[in-house]
Write a structure and sequence with these properties.
Helices cover 94% and strands 0% of the residues. It is mainly α and 85 residues long.
Length: 85
């Protein structure tokens, strides 16, 4: 991808941001009563899913780091074993 392609698309999106946001904003305003009814469950679901996403991401990063470290130590042990022969 070329940087000028990205800039071109970003400029288009930035210039037309209102076009993309106005319909959703109007819809939210039209359905305020419905949103009031489900506000608490929506907030709870959002918070729980955010926390779960953080935890799963942290676990995945931790596991990846451990596996990478283990692979490095195995490679170093094999390299040292090859040098000793």
């Amino acid at each position: 991808m070329k940087i000028h392609h990205i800039r071109e698309k970003a400029q288009f999106l930035k210039q037309n941001m209102a076009f993309f946001l106005v319909p959703s904003s109007v819809s939210i305003i039209q359905h305020t009563e419905l949103l009031k009814e489900i506000l608490i469950p929506l907030l709870v679901i959002s918070m729980v899913s955010t926390i779960l996403t953080f935890l799963v991401t942290a676990f995945a990063v931790n596991l990846t780091m451990k596996l990478t470290q283990k692979k490095k130590s195995i490679s170093q042990a094999q390299f040292q074993g090859d040098n000793n022969e």
